[in-house]
Structure formats: C-alpha cells, structure tokens
Amino acid sequence: MVESGLSARTIFVLWNVKMNFLVIAAGGAAGALIRVLSSQMLAKVAPDLPWGTVCVNLAGSFLIGYLVSSFSLTYNQKLMILGGFLGSLTTMSTFSLDVVQLIEQKKWLPAIAFWSASAIGSPVVCAFSMWLGGQAK
To answer: Which tens digits make up the pLDDT trace of 41-100?
Structure first.
C-alpha cells in the first residue's frame, strides 16, 4: 500500500484511465481542428452548401475502413485514432444540423444531394477502403 491508502494496482488502473482520456482528447482535438478548417476552406468555394461536412465524413469513412482492415492497431491507437481523431473529425450532429437547415431554407434538392452524398457515400467509401486495405496486406 502507498501512503494514500490506495493499492499499487488501484493507482495503476487510475493512471491508465487518465492516460486513456488524454490519448482520446489529443486525437479529438486534432480531428476537430481539421474538421473546422476543412469546412471553412470549402465554405469559400461553395458558400451555400455544407460540402466541408460531406468531405470530412467521406474522408473519415475511408480512413476508418482502411485503418481497421489494413493495420493491427493497439488499444491506445484505436482510442486516439478511431475514438478521438475520427470521432471528432466526422460528426453526425453537424451532418444532421446541415440537412435540417437546408430543409428549413426550402433548399430541397441541395438537402437531398447533401444527405445522399453523406448517408450513401460514407458507407460506400468505407467498404471500398476496407477492400483496399485487405488488398494491401
């Protein structure tokens, strides 16, 4: 026992939990920054449509499929890359808000195109990248 009254095992477990949070937070911060910067850059090109969200969702779907199928990731790599980075890079909440805002603005065709590109494109890109990752082994 250490002076705090906690066993060495308890301290080890608590330390690992803290480290896991830090690993997820580091990945999440990077993913969030890239998502915001991508959206801002693409908003300059197409200011009336949320193509930044589509692009990060497609890129994130590709990356998660490829990484999972191509590499044996460690637990911490999964936490940082899949949970943190890709979890904050791709976001259903932003996607949902963008779709609803387009509908509220009565931009029916852009809403359908945006929804289709994300909802259909993301799983297709993920499946393709998993196939590609399997070919790379």
So the answer is: 999 988 888 888 888 989 998 998 899 888 899 999 999 998 899 989 987 777 887 889
pTM for this model (two decimals): 0.70
Token duo for residue 56: 């990060």
Ramachandran bin of 5, using left for φ above 0, alpha for ψ from -120 to 50, beta for the remaining angles: left
**CB-CB contact of 98 with 118 (8 Å):** no
DSSP readout, 58-101?
A: HHHHHHHHHHHHH----HHHIIIIIIIIHHHHS-HHHHHHHHHH
Q: Roughly how many angstroms between the first and final C-alpha of the chain, as a whole number?
A: 47
With a CB cutoff of 8 Å and minimum separation 6, the contacts of 113 are: none
Q: How far apart are CA 1 and CA 74, in angstroms?
A: 31
Please enumerate in sequence order all residues whose Cβ is within 8 A of that of 97, keeping only pairs 6 or more positions apart, or say none: none
